[in-house]
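Hi L.,

As promised, Putative helicase:
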Amino acid sequence: MKKEEIAKKIIASILYNPEHWNICRLYFQAEDFADDELRAFRVFYNLNDEMDLTIGNMTVALWEDGLDVSKYSEVGRPIDTISFEYMCKVYSNIDAMEKFNLILKGFKPENIEDIEKIQGQLNEILELDKKFLKEKPVSYEVDEILVDLDEEIKDNSKIIMSNCYPSFNEFTQGLSAGNLVTICGAYKQGKTTFGLQLLLSIIKQSKIMAGVFSLEVSKRELIKRLLSMTLKIPYNHLRNPKNLTDEDYIEIKEQGYSAIKGMNFLVYDRPIDLQVLKSKARIWKEQYDVGLIFIDYIGLIKSKGENRERELSFISQELKNLAKELRVVVLSLAQLNRAGLHKPTSENTAESISIARDSDYMFIISKPDVEFYKTIKVDNEEIDNNGYFIVKCELSRHSEAGKRFVLEPDYFMNLKETKSDYGELFRKLNPNLFS
C-alpha cells in the first residue's frame, strides 16, 4: 500500500472513531502529511475541546474547510485501536525503512542516536506484527500458570522484595512480573534517593539484573551518588574532588570497585523517546534477562505532540504494557507539582493523573517542614519530626492503601526505615530498634 493511501485511511479511521485522534497526535505532526490529509490534520488539531471531537463535528469542520469528505467514507470500514496504531506505525516508519536501506548501502549516520532511533522504530513494527498472530484460548495459559506457581512455592526468586524496607514488602507482598510501580514526590523531596536505594535493595535481595534509564543525571553522576551511599563518603566530596580527604580517597581506591561490582544493573543516560526506551528494554531483556526497569523520571521521556498530559497518559499506559510484555517490573519516578509540596497526593502529579490509574502500586514521598510540623503521627503515636521523610502507600490494585512509614536520613542521605503504620510487623522484623 502506498504512503498516500495509508494517510487517507488514517484520516478515514479518525472520522469513524474520533478516539483514534489521540493516538494519531502522538505519532504525527501536521508536516508528516501532505495535500488534503495535511489540511484534515490541521482541522482536527483546531478542535481542541474533546467535546468537539465527535463524528458530526469533525465531518462538518472538514466540509467547512472545503475538503471532499466522501473520499474518506469510500476508503473502507472502521478498524480497531490496535490495527489503527499499527497503521500509524507503518506510516511513520516508512521513512525510517528508507534510511535503514541507505545504511545498508553505506550511508553513515551522524551519531549512534540516529541508529538507535531507526532501530527502535523498526522494532516497533516487528513487535506490532506479532499482535496479529492467532491468539491462543486462555486454557493454554493454565499449564504455564501452574509451572509458575510451582517455581514460586519452591523458590521465591520470582517475587521481588526489598532487603531494607519491610513496610514496602508488606504493602506489595512482593512485586511480580508485569507490575508498574510509581514513586511520586515534589522537587527535592527525596524521590530519587528513595528510588535508588529501593532499586539497590531489590537487586541485592532478589538477585536480579536491572536496567536503569537515568534521564535526569549522567551515568557518571549516578555512580558517584551510589558510591556516596555505599561507602559513606559525602556526595559533595565526590562532585568536587578537592573536598576529598585522604581517607575518602583511600576508601574509593580500595573499596570502590567492589562496591559497584555488586550493583547488577545497566545504565542508559541519553535523552530518549518512548520508542527507543521500549526498544532498549527489549534488547536488555533478550541479552541480559533484566527483571526490573527503573526510570528516572517519566516526565523526561520525549514525545512529539503538544498536549503533554495526553502524551504522558499514553506513555504510562505503554510502560504498563511493556511490563506485561517483557514480564518485568517497571519502577518509575514521577514529579508532583508545586501543590504537592503542601498536599502530596496522586491528584497533584505534575505529569498526568493517569499515572495513578495505570500503576499497580503508587508511593508518595514527602518531607514535612519542621517549622510547621513539629511532630508526625505514625502507628497511632506522635513522634518528633527530626527532618524525617514520610512514604505513603497511596494507591494499590492488590492490597489496602493508605498506610505510611518513616525514613530517617543519615549524613550520607541513606534513608533508613524507623517507624511504620505496620506496627507489630515492623517491630517483629526490626527487634534491634526496640531493644
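The chain has a mean pLDDT of 77.

Thanks again for sending the construct details.

K.
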